[in-house]
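This is your field. Pick holes in the following sequence-structure pair:
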Amino acid sequence: MEMFDEAQDALIPNCRPDMQPYIGQVFETLDEGISFYEAYANECRFDTRRFGHKYSNDIKTWQTIVCSRQGEKWDVDEEASSTKRRRRSSRCNCNAKLTLKYSTDPGSPCYVVSNFVDLHNHEMIDKKHARYMKSNRNLGDIHYKFMQDCSKANIGPTRTFNLLKEFLGGYDAVGCTVTDIRNCKRDILQEMKGADVQMILNQMEVKKNTCDGFHYKFQKDTDGKLNSLFWCDAVSRKNYKMFGDIVSFDTTYSTNKYCMVFGPFTGKDNHGCPVTFGAGFVSNEGADSFSWLLSEFVDCMGFAPKLIITDQDWGMKLAIERVLTSTRHRWCMWHIMMKLPEKVPKRILANEELKKDLDSCIWSELLEPEEFEETWLTIVDQYGLQNEAWFTTMFAHREYWIPAYFRDFPMGSLLKTTSFSESENSFFKRYTNSHFNLADFVMHYNSALDAQRNITERLDFSDASKVPILSTELLFEKHAAAMYTDRIFQQVQDEIAEAHRRCRMSHFELEDNTEIYTIMDSHRNKGVVRHEVSTESYQCDCKLFLRRGILCSHIFWLFKNHDVKEIPSTYIGTRWLKTPLLKSVHNNLSEESSTSADSHVDAKRVVATKLHSLYFRLFQRAQSNADDIFALFNGMEELSHKLFGDTVPSVSSMGKAQSIENLYGLARPNVVTVHPPNVVSTKGSGSTSGKRIQSSLEKAIILQNKPKRRCAKCREMGHHDARNYGREKGKSNM
């Protein structure tokens, strides 16, 4: 029980005699003396801190440890200070302390207690609050391991703390606070400051040396700062071999604290799911930066894609013309049409008939180029759009974005917009945030890539173990189910069902050895199918097989009526087959790009996984019985003593360097030759202002959703007030 002297306003904490320091007490080392006083303070329930020391000939000759409530809060000039936070202080001028002095009197160096004050001017911390004391908030190995796993899963400090609370059995068992977890991550980032770029480059060099399929290249400026980076692993290169004929490239922002522009190369796999072929960072959106990135992409893969789709960026257009000379370039239709309200007067778009005619003309995949041009010019004449600059400009560049000009391009309808890339960018952003350094970003990018590939493997498993339900008794539908992945088979099945139940022949004629059928479907679309009897070849003028790689209902109608048992191999295609049946979309490919790092099995990781499973299995079986729990604990204590010689400490001996290595898989480099880039300014949300430039349409949508208020001048409800009545009301009426 503590003794409190009201006259002197002093309190002497009570503790066991063997734990209380005394003047003249001798310790072999300084750390031993400090630890003894800290143990005494913990027993008495007050915190300590080191206050002052002296050195002589590189030897610490004097050290004072004081109560954490020693001193008083500094006075702050409230008018001059920019600090807005309200912060309280625990300082109350407590004078309790212990001083250790270096001595050689007994014959060997030691530290002696030269001064000890046990009087406090405040109450000791209550027992139920003891867990909040700094001395009781220690991050052990379990905390570090848990924080590392949560960090890799992009789980923040608050959720990490909540998970720890459930894992360890309650708040009183956690042994730390949310702030401790947050500060631990802060300290790691501070330790890494200035070395994160060099760290990922070292990591990529290690991967390149252990796996021939891994590829990376970077550029730095004259100051040694990172300018551009491209990387791609062996699996991505293999995927490019299988699905890299059509590539979508769309940049995104707010993925890292340097505001570098992130650009992944994305395609579609045989399930119709996103597949990443590689990724890069550039520091600006100029043609030179994109040219370098595209050059590295082609150099890595060995050949260029057949078609690449991007947004309407002129720097990117110039880069593609320089580098991808044999690649067809397509603009994202969605981006173009989204800009339409900004480019033409409102009075024009107010015409619903115009919008209907324009959409049917632009988005149709059944029009030939000549038919599109005729329809476009008719719309322009009909609605008096000859003097509208947008219509003139976009018609001049029609071969970059109108579907009619991609009807004869193989798989030309696979991607019409960059929305597929934007969806993938959104997927990556779930694993990243704008405060990440590049080491954090690459770590979470790899996690996202693993998640993407796990989805594909799960679909492969489903295809191999499940049989789809057929909608008809046609034998070629059963054949299609055996050949195509399930997601693509659903589309093929729709065409087969359309042919079986709703298509009908409206005309037939015979020319030499060619049968010509005119087939009408339920969508009032007419398909003219030419059947070469001698070669058993089929060709429909809707060109669905050429554009998307699956046969149309018009040809399936002929299969049905000609009693075709199996789809001819010519019309199966290669892109949508089940994974074991896949063939490369690129023919001239070296074996190097298909090299995989999967052959290397980490035996340590396998055993570690089994160890985790073993522990939780034993814990689950033992927790229902107290004797079993104690037996398990004693057994693990005995094993710990046998392996490590003593009890595992509650406070982790892991330093910051070891924490970095455990988290990122590589130690902080001692030599830094490539430095982090300066924060760049781009046209997107990665700008230094932190805000992306909004279009007039976005501003209009935001204004529309903003609550209205009553103007004191005109008494009308709107987005203006008496102060800006004339200006803002005029804008809203434009």
Q: What stands out?
A: The mean pLDDT is 86.
